[in-house]
Amino acid sequence: MKNILFICKHNVFRSKVAEAYFNKINKNKKINADSAGIIKADIFGEKEKKLIHFQRKTAKKFGINIVDGSKSLSVKLLKKQDIIIIVADDVPAYVFNNKFYLKPDLKIIKWNIPDVKGEKNDKAIIKKDTIKIIKKIDKLVKELR
Fold this sequence. Notes:
This protein is an alpha/beta fold. The chain is 39% helix and 17% strand. α2 (46-61) crosses α4.
């Protein structure tokens, strides 16, 4: 069994889209995908809740169902990974340089998908981000065959 972990800042949108889409299109049952955030997102204001609602609605338009809840990283989760894919421009790859608790042949991939910043063009960014993630997952699944 090969384990892939998609990581973003809060595990609310980018890593969740990657996990859900990967699991939707991947036919290789020997590959397991999960997602997590480096910071668990527990509390949101009204503005963030509206943004999350729009993100999930956008993903759904692409046939991607995002499950509620945010999962944060743990050593236990990291220890079992064969591939870590950072689906974010705001999570530095050096966070995973400590090979003490990671598999020695761990592969780390970084996709610089931007986070939304609560600005006017968030809706356009969310759509672009979703398309970028889909394209990267399509390529990844082909590479893993």
